[in-house]
Amino acid sequence: MNYPESQLILEEIKKANKILLNCHRGPDSDTVGSALSMAEILRNMGKEIEIICPSNIPEDLFFLEGSKDIKKVDFKTFDFSAFDLFIVMDSSTYGMVANSKEIDKPNTKIIVIDHHHTNEGFGSINLIDSKITSTSELLYKIFFDWSVTLNQKVATCLLTGIIGDTGAFQYGGVGKSTLLIAGELIDLGADKDEIIYNIYRSINFKTIKFWGKVIEMMQIDEKSHFVWSAIPLSIYEEYGKDSSAKEDGANLFFPVVKNTDFGVIMVETDKDILSISFRSRKDFDVSKIAEEVGGGGHKPAAGAKVENRFDEAVEKVLSACRKYANKKV
């Protein structure tokens, strides 16, 4: 048994008939892979499942079976009363689930499964392993605890989440266990090459042009040892409003600049809403900066959303960056 909470979660699932699953705002491969793999396992148990998300699913994940069926909803008006259980995965706060800090949790019983060390533990059962690379890897271990059989669809979804959250195994924290699990998933039929092709080698031309603008506008704070770029809504709209462009750009360009400790990309995705991604180069803990501005995440990668006028929001983030950079977190 990997986790004592696994059995508690399974007991709650057995009691439920209709179960709700989530993908967090600005969905990435780990949240989508986690939701789709859990949905497949639970449907095989005879449960009725629905997956909801406050944002659109990125097109680069449409190769995953079932991804186009994930329902975009407004959490302010969504009716939770029809569901016996809400399993929330890969989300450190309920604000990340609902895309707003102002929305209260529903009365539906919530189970939290996550790997962010900043997770608030907002469920009635919380299985949080911050030492693991991804929620998808965590689910592999939970499914092992449940003694369920993983089919090719589940294996593909889990490997997609692992590859996405590890940057194709290049980020810190990837060790023997992660690689062995990836190997097991490949043995079960997951196609590593297809996953990498879709995530990393099928980029929209406008998105690449957007990255060019991000790099053009990148600045370096030599005193505090970080790089940053702030993109207003007008530019984001001009280049197609690709919801995954910020995250992918953050992964590619912001943890690689010599003589820096971290990087931050800020994109105004809607009027007066600044979406932020932090990336560390080595051991710097960017989750502390994210928490300072209302977000969370991992030590090497974190995010936040600030609602304010563009210039003021950018200055708030930069002030937090300089504060923690000078502390050498």
Amino- and carboxy-terminal Cα gap: 35 Å
The count of domains is: 2
Radius of gyration: 19 Å
Low-confidence stretches: none
Elements, N to C (H/E) = HEHEEEHEEHHHHHEEHHEEHEEH
CATH homologous superfamily grouping of the largest domain: inorganic pyrophosphatase (n-terminal core)
| Major beta sheet summary | 6 strands, parallel
Which architecture of the largest domain does the CATH hierarchy give at level 2? Alpha-Beta Complex
Secondary-structure content class: alpha/beta
Could you characterize what this model shows?
By secondary structure, this protein is of the alpha/beta class. The protein has two domains: 5-200, inorganic pyrophosphatase (n-terminal core); 205-327, Diaminopimelate Epimerase, Chain A, domain 1 (Roll), CATH 3.10.310.30. It is 40% helix and 19% strand. It has helices spanning 5-15, 29-44, 94-98, 135-146, 152-166, 176-187, 192-200, 205-216, 233-238, 245-253, 287-292, 310-327; strands at 18-22, 48-53, 71-72, 85-89, 109-114, 125-128, 219-221, 226-231, 262-270, 273-280, 296-297, 301-307. Strands 3-2-1-4-5-6 form a six-stranded parallel beta sheet, with helices on one face. α5 runs antiparallel to α6. It is globular. The two termini are 35 Å apart.
